[in-house]
Amino acid sequence: MKILLTIHNVAYKGGGERVVANLANALCQIPNYEVCILSYYTDEHNTSCPYPLDPRVKIAYLHNFNDFHEKEKGIRRILWRWTKTIIINLRLNKSYSNYDIIIESDYSMFYPRFKTKNTKYIKIMHMVINKWKQKNRFYDRIVFLNTRELERWRSYGKNIIKIPNFLPYLPFEDTLHNAIQYYNAITDKKCDTQSQNTNNNIKLLPYTDIKDFKESRNLLLQYKLTLQDSMDRINNATKHKKIIAVGRMEAKANHKGFPRLIQAYSKIAQEFPEWQLHIIGDDYGQKGMLQEQIINLNMQQYIILRNFTYDIEKEYLESAIQNLYLWCYLRRQAMDYHLLLMTLLLLEIALKIMASWCQIMMK
Question: How many Cα atoms are found within 13 Å in the side-chain-facing hemisphere of 77?
């Protein structure tokens, strides 16, 4: 089985690229599966995928240059928007006609009008969409990652389905066991020193008991920091209660709505001085504008802009609220790290941010 995963630029450090990398790593584990990631473009530095990839996963490029079409204007831009899907379709058919499945992860670069025989075409929707494109009918399957979008668009065809947002691992299943073993080993060692009974091993049920949820999360955080030889950061992590928003700081599309988030959070930040909002992600033309907005609002000590990190698990474990989309829909990722509004204080903060955000949107 040969599978081709297509994406606009594999060098981007975003959620869609992370999902593609994780999916490729998982598929290549299946015997007799050959997996390739096809990037439509490179970036100006010829950067490879920023996320870890299994050596068996191949990377190929449809164009060996950056997408200069994004900067074009006028008639050249209009012509490219009209013709790009057909051009890419024909180039794929010419160079990758021997693949059994093609999984598209870009929103509007490729529609299989001209299909290769015996090839199945799947499109994954990584974002909330405002308009249904009739060209989606060319796909054999349209895949959404949340129930809300599925319910909104499922009437447009029988080929529309939903799968959970793909995660490479689940900490309560994959890491908690090691954290508990580490804790038990330390506890046993201490008890041996004190000549006490060592039968004090702990067992946790994080999915059924709220206290075990909290204890499991604390164990995972301390275990993670211990492995990094960063015990001093455990104390630092408790100085400020942290809210994180993760995503590319992208000026053109502004998918994450960070300017509105900063404006909304500034309305209530001083009411909760022990809390900080951390916005984490690579700069795609918006970071300077966001920093200027923070300075103008005098929010430097409450709102922090941070660079992209590979160790996003640690950020989730250290944070109390993740991404501030919790009132819209709870993502599986947040559920797995138990980043829920578990106290009245968190609920109060979230409601005040949401109210402030709504006021801004109404203006």
Answer: 6
